[in-house]
Amino acid sequence: MSWPSKMHTTLCKLSKHHWLLHQAKNAKESQQEKKRKVMVLESHAYTSLRATYSESNLACFSREDVLLQDVDADNIDESDPCWQVKWQLSRLIKKIVAKHRLEDAVSGAASSATGGTSQVSTANEREVSKNAVPRVAAHLTANQNRRHPENILSPALQNNLGYKINTWEAPRDSNSFLYNVRLNNGELVIPQTGVYYIYSQTYFRFREPEGVEPDADPDSDSVRNPKQMVQYISKYTDYYPDPILLMKSARTSCWSKKAGYGLYSIYQGGVFQLNMNDRIFVSISNKDLVDMDKPASFFGAFLVS
Q: 276: domain CATH number?
């Protein structure tokens, strides 16, 4: 082959090689450009996704019914972009409400124990407080400083209800107390209409009158004269002038003349409907036998409902 032919062949090869290199370079640059464009698109998509997510959360919080609807975990609509936000928010609100209710309940119990009042913060607690039965109770013991019948009993009552005990121990110690109840002349004044449990016990002691000698015969089985003992619990009302009997208990006892004295007690109690300003009291049939021993003679009542 001649030299010009060889030169031409060589130039053709160089030109083709240069073209291949140029094509490879262009292909590489095109691939890098595509990669860059993909990265830019991914970045834009990520930014757009974050913005959309943020806007959707804000939209969930701005909905009017977000705090008015209960979220049911078993009935979730995954097509709703707000369901997860509402579910988490609902759980948080329930935890906070439960915590505050527990704190209010503990605070109310502590305040009641110290005689204070608790401010109720929820509708349910206000309803419970409204329906709660107030503390209405009284327990009175005998006044040992006035053991003579003339000092503790009133004149005979009408309707054959004996003699009213008009003197009880003032609530100065733990044995006697008055909670929202007033004591007036031996009568407990009822503060509100309701069902009450009323109770009383009276102590009786029989002593042989002075100057009466016991039977000279120690073997005598004769007995002292029997004594009748009756305890009455009655009430006064604003609608009737005379006392109304609620309940009574009675016994007649005899004992040997060998005994120095006889001791008896009568207890009774019952549930009654009473009206506001009713006045309940205790009376006994035989004023000479009553013994106002503090632990043995008492009178009380408390509100049931």
A: 2.60.120.40
Residue 90 sits in the same domain as residue 153: no
- How far is Cα 32 from Cα 231, in angstroms, rounded to an integer? 113
Domain containing 169: what range?
Answer: 137-303
Token couple for 66: 């977000």
In Å, what is the CA distance from 231 to each residue of 164, 184, 245, 299? 10, 20, 11, 11
**0.70 exceeded by pTM:** no
60 is in an annotated binding site: no
* CA dihedral sign of residues 43, 44, 45, 51: positive
Q: Are residues 155 and 287 in the same domain?
A: yes
Of 170 and 260, the one with more pLDDT: 170
Looking at the structure of the chain, the number of domains it has is: 2
CA dihedral 230, 233, 236, 239 (to 10 degrees): -100
